[in-house]
């Protein structure tokens, strides 16, 4: 009858590459494999101390375990998908050696495939969620950009409308100023024309002997003084 410790050790050796693929994220696989290796190494040393296996057999087991771990590491680098053919072959070899029954091998192989499908579905679900999240974020960003563009267009239109209003107001003010200046010039021309007519009439009266030159000068001075007072009063208003 096979030694139970040796059988257990062999089963663990067969399962090591698949255990690393079945559990946890990639960043923790190295630490997990190291722990598995140290655990199996300790059990093999204990078996040697108890005399269950020889040192040569232990060395062979260590070498086989390292090779299996290296093959598993290379397989993981090439693909995340387990090499089911290789795993199935190793399980069959374990059955032929009597390390486990055919039913145990089938159950273990089925469990491994089941776990892989779960991980693949979870990865697909996570990837789909990431895609949906990215699409929602892009949609929200497009909506925000469209809102900003719409607000900028409305702001630009309001600013153009306000500027046109200012231009129209300035144009109206200029027109009013021009009209006032024109009216003022007209009044000044009319005022000068009146003064010229009055001065001419006084000159004719002096020549006719109706009034003296001094009286004519006094009359013109009064008219000029009245005009100045009227202008000052208008400016104060």
Tally of separate domains: 2
* CA-atom Rg in angstroms: 56 Å
Order of helices and strands: HHHHHH
How many strands in all?
0
Q: Which ranges are low-confidence, i.e. pLDDT below 50, for 5 or more consecutive residues?
A: 1-9, 17-28
Helix percentage range: over 70%
Task: Indicate the structural class.
Answer: mainly alpha
User: How far apart, in Å, are the first and last alpha carbons?
Assistant: 131 Å
Query: How many DSSP helices?
Result: 6
Mean pLDDT: 78
DSSP strand content: under 5%
Shape annotation: rod-shaped
Q: What kind of sheet is the major sheet? A: none
Give a concise summary.
The protein has 237 residues and is mainly α.
């Amino acid at each position: 009858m096979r030694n139970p410790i040796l059988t257990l050790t062999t089963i663990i050796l067969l399962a090591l590459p698949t255990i690393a693929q079945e559990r946890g994220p990639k960043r923790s696989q190295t630490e997990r494999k190291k722990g598995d290796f140290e655990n199996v190494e300790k059990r093999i040393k204990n078996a040697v101390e108890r005399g269950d296996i020889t040192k040569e057999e232990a060395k062979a087991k260590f070498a086989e375990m390292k090779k299996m771990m290296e093959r598993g590491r290379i397989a993981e680098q090439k693909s995340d998908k387990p090499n089911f053919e290789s795993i199935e072959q190793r399980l069959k070899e374990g059955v032929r050696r009597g390390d486990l029954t055919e039913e145990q091998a089938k159950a273990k192989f089925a469990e491994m495939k089941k776990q892989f499908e779960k991980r693949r579905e979870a990865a697909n679900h996570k990837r789909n969620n990431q895609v949906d999240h990215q699409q929602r974020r892009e949609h929200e960003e497009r909506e925000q950009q469209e809102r900003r563009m719409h607000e900028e267009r409305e702001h630009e239109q309001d600013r153009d409308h306000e500027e046109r209003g200012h231009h129209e107001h300035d144009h109206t003010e200029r027109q009013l100023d021009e009209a006032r200046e024109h009216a003022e010039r007209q009044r000044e021309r009319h005022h000068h024309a009146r003064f010229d007519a009055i001065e001419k009439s006084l000159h004719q009266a002096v020549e006719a002997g109706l009034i003296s030159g001094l009286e004519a000068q006094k009359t013109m001075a009064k008219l000029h003084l009245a005009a100045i007072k009227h202008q000052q009063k208008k400016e104060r208003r």
